[in-house]
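Quick illustration, no need to memorize.
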Amino acid sequence: MGGCILLSSVAAGRPELSVIGCVVIVALVVIIYFVNFITNDIKNNRHKQAAAAKVIVIQDSPNKIEPKAPTPPNPLLAKPEWASHVGTDQYGIYAILTIYDKKQLFRQIPAGTFIMGCDDAESDAAWVNRKRTFTDAPHGSCLSPQHIVKLTSPFWIADTPCTQEFWHEVMGSNPSKFNDDLRKPVEQVSWEDCKNMLSSLNRLRPGLKARFPTEAEWEYSCRAGTTTATYNGDIAYIGARNAPALDAIAWYSGNSGLPGRAMAIDSTGWSEKQYDHKRACTQLPRGKLPNMWGLYDMIGHVWEWCADWLGPIMKITVSDPLGPESGTYRVNRGGSFASIPSFCRSAARSGDKPDSKGLSQGFRICISA
């Protein structure tokens, strides 16, 4: 307004000049305002970009990375024909198989590469634990040489061992000893029994392709991206049946007591238990923490049959290994509610005759993708 007053005094005899001058000055003020606004906006954006760059640098620093679960499976492109429902959660993709009114949840496991087996330090520590109970255990009996394994195809695996109620729905019978609750894992089943169950299941759902997991698929699923003795870290052996790292994730001989159950087995002779108990048996599934792919009881609870014959492991890189073409024993994995801690590791191997049945012998269903 000061400019308009000045022009008015200069051009007192010519009012049209005063009006033109005011318009020019107002236009200049508007232009200057917008120039300052744009300049400040550019500066602000630069500050934001710089701040973001600093945050990215901090997040990318090796010392600042927080532990996280392995990359979840690739997005599900189509609902499996056998599934009654599919979905996603914090663990990845899942699908539900329904047989009559019984359901089993399956997790989609991605193709990938991992280190199978354990190093000498883990093997030696496991052997020392085994010697506490089995004094004649030869050195090297816990050895599972490390080697690289590539699994080229995704697959589905049940989030729990097969339950008694699911087995009964397919087979019309229940061979289990600990049958006070049908939601418990089925046990006392041989490899041949499980093969027959899988065949019956496939007949109920044509195109299902239910099967045993291979030994490599089992360990890959159990590890869920980890490289330690368990998916809860390495094991410190405090006693013959005392390994605190297992308590959060597994039912094993140190914590599987269940008082008041008539069918439970006598555990008074089990030495150095983590928790004192007189009788022990299987428990309900999902009673312990899952691994990072949402799989429960991969370690402990019941031994799980695998497809492979038990044989030596070669320290070479292999793709989709199937084990020996023949043998005497089928692979067992995972340990059980009655096992000492050294059997309850991601890399621990065992085997039994295909017709063998035991109080701690179960299995887990796998489905080809």
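The domain at 85-368 is CATH 3.90.1580.10 (paralog of FGE (formylglycine-generating enzyme)).
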